[in-house]
Sequence to fold (61 residues):
Amino acid sequence: MPDQEPDRDRKASETEAERRRRRAVFLRELTEARELRDRVQPRRAKTARLRHAMRMRTFRW
Fold:
């Protein structure tokens, strides 16, 4: 039984590394999709940028 614990820890760290890798791929694809959408719909992207800027200006810290 005691010799199974290090094996379980190793498996957990591999799972964590795999999760980080999948997350990095997902975020890369999400950014790519946003850039594509901004190129395809420039007017909508501009209004979204302006809306975000307004939201940031009116935000109370």
User: Anything to note?
Assistant: The mean pLDDT is 84. The chain is about 90% helix and 0% strand.
